Amino acid sequence: MKKVLMITLIFLFSIGSAFSLIVLAKSDSNPKNKLTFSAETHADWPDYDINELTEKADLIIIGKVKDSKRSLNKISQDFSIERQFSDITIDKTIKGNIENEIVLNQVLDYVETGENYLLFLDKGEDGYYYPMTDTATIKESNGEYYTNIEKLDGTFKEKELIDRIELINNQ
């Protein structure tokens, strides 16, 4: 019985290996089959509490996503990454100096057009703004914001959330 099981496993391993080689060979010969890099499986966000997030953010705003577009950016010959560029109309600035609008550059957990968000952002050298962590993009739902940021965990009305962040920001 062990011998039959061993032969079966070797056979299945061989078939799987051959199949993998065929798939890889096809992806190299046809540009449409190139492998796409997924940031979701490689994201390594810093773990900031609300004090650190507020201190380190270049910009903290409440804004509405006006428009979004996605593009595929080539990382190397074999890998590409999809980015979303979103025009955000600023309703309230909690920290930072900014006029009316920014462009948010994301590789995962994309914001949705027409929705309102509280955003903790870093400004890149390229002029785009980037979310600081996986908890730095907080969607408004039914007039409330749910956050799981350490030391600011829960559901808040907009004014209460702004007051708490401003209090921390002014300490």
Would you kindly provide a written description of the structure presented here, covering whatever features stand out?
- With 171 residues, the protein is an alpha+beta fold.
- It contains 3 helices and 8 strands.
- It has helices at 2-29, 50-56, 158-169; strands spanning 59-74, 80-95, 101-106, 116-123, 129-131, 137-141, 144-149, 152-157.
- Strands 1, 2, 3, 4, 5, 6, 7 and 8 form an 8-stranded antiparallel beta sheet that branches.
- A hairpin with a 5-residue loop joins strand 1 (59-74) and strand 2.
- The radius of gyration is 22 Å and the shape is globular.
- Mean pLDDT is 81; it is low at 17-42.
Descriptors for this entry?
171 residues, alpha+beta
Annotate the secondary structure layout.
Blueprint: H1 2-29, H2 50-56, E1 59-74, E2 80-95, E3 101-106, E4 116-123, E5 129-131, E6 137-141, E7 144-149, E8 152-157, H3 158-169
Antiparallel strand pairs: 1-2, 1-4, 2-3, 4-5, 4-6, 6-7, 7-8
